Amino acid sequence: MDARLNLFANPVAGKFLRYINSAGKAVGDSALPAATQELVKIRASQINGCGFCTDMHTKDAAHAGETSVRLNLVAAWREATVFTDAERAALELTEQGTRIADAAGGVTDEAWANAAKYYDEDQLAALVSLIALINAYNRLNVIVQQPAGDYQPGQFG
Predict the structure, then answer these.
(1) Long-range contacts of range 61-69, CB-CB < 8 Å, 24 or more positions apart?
(2) What is the pLDDT of residues 95-150, one digit of tens each?
(3) Cα distance between residue 108 and residue 92, in whole Å
(4) Would the pTM of this model clear 0.90, i.e. be above it?
(5) CA-CA distance, 85 to 3, in Å (whole number)?
């Protein structure tokens, strides 16, 4: 399977990726816990059907020490007992922020208030930014049908 467009060779796509990667660095350098960041990226990627990002972020999380049990249960986090209350709040915000078109009201006040119980303002800013960013990556990869499965942890730096 080949992508419809080679995002890594096209100069316009390459420039765009450099910009959004810079945005990703701002989130990555934030006080939002790294494990939470990976869980958010995985869950949004699952919802959006982005195989490339799901492959990348599950492998990166495992490489960073995340357990296979938690990785295998991200899609069913509501029924899983392996996530903290803070992680569950982040996953709920991720789902609602990713499924905006599915919910007439967007993100509920309850989901926001629950996340605000566990994350300070800077962490919330990072969390919201990360949800927006991973959704942009997902859409880019889904549109071009970027193949998944060959990613190696640390491949992009």
Answers:
(1) 61/35, 62/153, 63/153, 63/154, 64/34, 64/35, 64/38, 66/35, 66/38
(2) 999 999 887 778 999 999 999 999 999 999 999 999 999 999 999 999 999 999 99
(3) 10
(4) yes
(5) 38
